[in-house]
Amino acid sequence: MTKRRVVIFAVALPLFSGQSLADELQSARDAVNRALKSDGAGLVSRLSACPKSEDDNGSEYVTLIQSVPVGDASEATLIDSGMCGGGNKHGQYLVITRHGKSQLVTDAEIGDMSFIGEISHVDGNKVFLSGNRWLPDDPHCCPSRQAVLEYDVETGKHSLKLTPKKARN
Question: Rounded to whole angstroms, what are the CA distances from 133 to 68, 107, 149, 163?
């Protein structure tokens, strides 16, 4: 997979909660950072901000952010990351922000060697991600199938459906 070092914002008007888009994005980044810190790592804004210490245990830097409004009062933010220490691991995190509070989605099958995608569209309270899915025998370099992940921000339920297409590598 190609590493992208550009940050893309799907800009929307501030949510009804009164927070600005910048606040929403920072809240989403903070949610990912808290989760990574529990494993002794962290999330930084760019490669140049990576810790220089050899003691760093897997910190990541932001490579891409997509953010879209979902429903009446939610925001879905997808954060892609690279590893500060190098390597080909690709982090990806879906964060839902509602009423100023961000929650990292941890049970939607998103992540390296599972499913990596991008926000393709929103329909009501559901956000859809299109991307590549690794099957059990796929090597790290080469997920074999395309898939669509549907996540309902109201219920927290998701479904991952394989498409008949081969993955785009």
Answer: 23, 15, 10, 10
Q: Which of 116, 118, 17 is nearest to 75 (CA)?
A: 17
Q: How far apart are CA 116 and CA 151, in angstroms?
A: 14
The pLDDT score that the predictor gives to residue 55 is 65
Q: Identify the domain containing residue 55 by its residue range.
A: 21-166
> pTM to 2 decimals?
0.84
In the chain, the amino acid numbered 94 is L
Count CB-CB contacts under 10 A for residue 39.
Answer: 9
Q: How many helices (H) and strands (E) does the chain have?
A: 1, 9
How many angstroms separate the CA atoms of 59 and 149, rounded?
A: 26
Task: Name the amino acid, one letter, at 69.
Answer: P
In a domain, 8, yes or no: no
Strands 74-83 and 60-70: antiparallel
Instruction: Report CA 40 to chain centroid distance, whole Å.
Output: 19
Count the Cβ atoms, other than its own, within 10 Å of residue 27.
Answer: 18
Proportion of the chain above pLDDT 90, given as a percent: 61
Q: Would 1 be classed as within a structural domain?
A: no
